[in-house]
Amino acid sequence: VDATAAWDEARAESIPTHSIGLDFTDFYAATRDQVARALSLTLGDSDLAADATDEALARAYLKWAMVGRLDNPGGWVFRVGLNWARSSLRRRHRPARRLGDSDSLDLPPVVEPALMAALAGLSVRHRSVVVCRYLLGYSDEETANALALRPGTVRSCLHRALKRLRADLGHLREEND
Amino acid sequence: MDPFEQELADCLSRVAHETNLRPGSPNDARRRAQSLRVSRRRASMLSGALVAVTATIWGIIVITRSSSDQIFVGDPGGVDSSVPAPLAPDDSVSVTSIGGDGSDAASSVLVPSSLTWTLDDSPQRLADLSPIAFDAATGSLYAIGTQPGTGGRKVDAVALRSSDGAAWEPVGTVTDTSFMRNLAAYDGHLYGVSTAAITASIADGEDWGDIVTRTSPDGVNWTTTLLPGVDVRAVRKEYRAAFSQTFDVQAGPRGTLIAHQVAAFPDATRLGIADATSVGLEVRPGGIFVPTPPCADGATYTPDGQCELSNGTVVAADPSLVAGKGRLMTWTELGLDAADVALYTGKPRFFLSTSSGAFREVAVPTTESGFVESVRLLADEEGFAALITPRAVPTPNRNIRVAESQFFTSPDGLTWTQGPPLPGDPWVEGLERSNGVLRTVTTFGPTMNLVDGQWQSDGSIRALTAAMGELRAKGESNLSVPTSHGPSGIALETSFSVDPFINADVRIEHQQGPLRRTRPSRQRHRFAHGSGSFEPGPLVRRQCRSARRR
User: What whole-number distance in Å separates Cα of residue B99 and Cα of residue B525?
Assistant: First the structure.
């Protein structure tokens, strides 16, 4: 818990994570489930997400001297995991599951079914931007770094994704209004 | 963030946290990383660096550290930002071709290395150069080798001393010994563990030599004493077979420590396992794996390992019928007590000698029952350290060591404290600690690495870097690399010899210069090749080019 808190605090204050002296074990504890859940929402497959996260963390361990010095190593793990999962799906000739599909059984009973349906309507890229921005709490720049996109592309994706989500989830806005 | 975005974030968070995730641990990631590293190395090997050939090889690589280049020295309490990141693959590549007569086609290749390699003369007349030991007090490097030209079961060993790993002088003879595989040295005193004089044939399987310690104040005069409480012959009589080995011996200012193991092989009859032969039994964590009888349905597995069909015909067993299948019988099911379990699992035993000189058995650092692959010791001014590597259980497709080693430290060899996990490959051949840096030489399959780990303020050890030219031997998957750390560097001994007593070739490599991020511009190798009488063979000089990729 302390490691997670220190990590979150460092990230919130844009402190380079290597300067807080966290080692791989701390990083793993702070990151693994967080990234796996984010990938699960992005991919619609919790097993694949866990596998992708574990693969990415193994690669992070091999390159820890480099990854550990990144400002946002969690973003690196997310991107590597996402790329690995998509490559894996391509090798298996399977598309990423659409959230809300009948075989998306790995995901929990939906708190907000309309949310899942709305997310399902997004492309994987748009979904990953939304997840980075609103689940992982990354800034536009951090999201851009994590996904190897330009900040402008992130903002564009986010704008389009939000436009669609607002249309599909209008009731959320109405309730808040 | 507007209210809609806030609500979206909350919903995403709730859904994410209700997702059922498969649990994971940092050790899982490390194990996966090891597998990944192995698969990458295999891919690298397939891509084919330059491979050259030597016949059977014995070598010593001495890495000499420079006092002028303190790259790896750091404050033990913090992270040294001046420490360079590990070399990128393209940063420095040197491919070294090692020659020989080629008759035995044991190939080796050095790939990528950030080290500066040179080679000095080889001690042509050494045959079995087995254990090596740096004397941290005097800086000398000691080795035990067989006399030139001797062979067979009864050999006289010679103690040799070197100041640089290149030129050696004989200092004394160790008579009537067989394999002295472990040697330690401190302040001119030598400590070894071996079997006693071979007074009966090993081949008859009845009279193994006792396990003895051999100590000498000068390498000339040796005192032999039994390792207390280790009676391999008694174990062999009571059990089907026994196995004895010394993991490591290390000597330092606070005493000499020995890690030894005696293990019994499981006996189906003794254990009351009716449907298996002793040969198929396998000791695993928690019990003994009993393979499914390799017979067709309806056939009976006979005690001599054949299958008797229902019509009375006896046919050969066919292991392919049941490959990998079987059951694990727990220690409780087998009715074994702790002493039996310790013997079957080969629980390590530690023996300590302090100023009195006599060895006595002391407690091992871990209370877990045996099942140990390796124990590496360290003795220095701070006391002792032990790295205990559990045996890995082979998976169907990955026969690799992936177990997490346990690291312990002790000021006196009696009380131990568990330390943090060590970075790097799990198979550690040698340890050294100084200035807050723990240096290990690791092997993983046929590759070797030098890993420097730095103690962090939270007590963990973080890998600073790993660097060593990898020495690969064709057809060798599990190298034993006696390693010793000393004030002038690290001595490594690699052996690929099929029969070290009769047909050992000798190669000595001497590596000079610090670990640095520069690349060698020129390397020279010189070989002494001999067989039988160990007369020097033709010298082969090679220019080893380093291919720099920019």
Answer: 8
- Residue B352: its pLDDT value, please? 95
Query: DSSP class of residue B279?
Result: G
The predicted pLDDT at position B548 comes to: 28
CB–CB contact A41 B18 (8 Å) = no
Name the residue among A41, A46, A108 with its Cβ closest to that of B12.
Answer: A41
- Model pTM above 0.80: no
What is the identity of the amino acid at B170? P
Determine how β-strand B509-511 pairs with β-strand B58-63.
parallel
* Distant-in-sequence, close-in-space partners of B187: CB < 8 Å, separation ≥ 6: B135, B137, B138, B253
Q: Which residue ranges in chain B fall short of pLDDT 50?
A: 48-129, 148-154, 198-208, 396-401, 469-479, 495-550
- Given a contact cutoff of 8 angstroms between Cβ atoms, the answer to whether B386 and B365 are in contact is yes
Sign of torsion over alpha carbons A98, A102, A104, A109 = positive
CB atoms within 10 A of CB B281: 22
| CA distance to A109, A168, B175, B249, B381, per residue, from B178 (Å) | 70, 82, 9, 17, 32
| Residues of chain A positioned with their CB less than 8 A from the CB of B85 | 65-66, 69
User: For chain A, how far is it from start to end, CA to CA, in angstroms?
Assistant: 36
Q: Answer whether B264's CB lies under 8 Å from B241's CB.
A: yes
Q: So what's the ipTM on this one?
A: 0.79
How many C-beta atoms lie closer than 10 Å to residue B355's C-beta?
Answer: 6
Q: What's the confidence (pLDDT) of residue B250? A: 94
Dihedral sign from CA coordinates of B421, B427, B433, B439:
negative
Q: What is the 3-state secondary structure (H, E, C) of B29-84?
A: HHHHHHHHHHHHHHHHHHHCCCCEEECCCEEEEEECCCCCCCCCCCCCCCCCCCCC
> What distances in angstroms separate CA B70 from CA B73, B83, B343, B435, one per listed residue?
5, 10, 46, 11
Whether residue A107 and residue B15 make contact (CB cut-off 8 A), yes or no, is: yes
Instruction: For chains A and B, count residue pairs whose Cβ atoms are closer than 8 Å.
Output: 133
> What is the nearest CA distance from A157 to chain B, expressed in angstroms?
15
- pLDDT at position A89 is 78
